[in-house]
Automatic annotation (TrEMBL):
Listed name of the protein: MaoC family dehydratase
Family named by the database record: Belongs to the enoyl-CoA hydratase/isomerase family.
CDD domains (UniProt xref): R_hydratase_like (cd03441)
Domain MaoC-like: 24-139
One Pfam family it belongs to: MaoC_dehydratas
InterPro entries: HotDog_dom_sf, MaoC-like_dom, MCH/BMMD
Length: 158
């Protein structure tokens, strides 16, 4: 008995879907993540954001923060579609990430655990393509909404 040939192009994490297969209300979660000082230090290095609110505990306390504040853009990065299974579900129909917006609702500190999710709020057909609109949210371990935003993606239709 000869084993079937392996085809890397057919290897999928989940069965790919099309724009037409998506539904308003579907939720795509990212794994929870507890932030550490190492995460903040790495982001500070990459972003070159050297504001003391992000690394100086005494400066942060003198200015009304209980501890150094994790960079907002680092928190936003946890809503990246690739942090969820969403890109695997849409497979080859993805064209581009069109836009994003967000509001930072509460501070995030080292030791906080974040729970990101993308929820489809609208599906807008546009000729041969379609726009998927998602609500991007992040809650912390206390159930507080720390980030609320919106993403838009352009997908190819059937």
């Amino acid at each position: 008995m000869t084993p079937a040939a392996f085809d890397p192009d057919a290897f999928q994490v989940v069965p790919a879907r099309t724009f037409e297969d998506l539904r308003v209300g579907e939720v795509f979660r990212a794994p929870s993540r507890t932030l550490t000082d190492a995460h903040a230090a790495a982001f500070q290095t990459v972003s070159a954001d050297n504001h003391p609110v992000h690394y100086d505990a005494e400066w942060a306390r003198r200015h009304g923060h209980r501890a150094p504040v994790v960079h907002g853009l680092q928190v936003l990065a946890f809503t990246a579609p690739g942090a969820t299974l969403f890109p695997h579900f849409i497979g080859e129909v993805f064209i581009s990430f069109l836009e994003l917006s967000c509001t930072f609702l509460a501070e995030v500190h080292s030791g906080d655990t974040l729970y990101p999710a993308l929820t489809i709020t609208a599906l807008e057909p546009q000729g041969d393509n379609g726009v998927v609109v998602t609500a991007a949210t992040i809650h912390n371990q206390r159930g507080e909404l720390v980030l609320s935003g919106r993403h838009k993606y352009l997908l190819r239709r059937r």
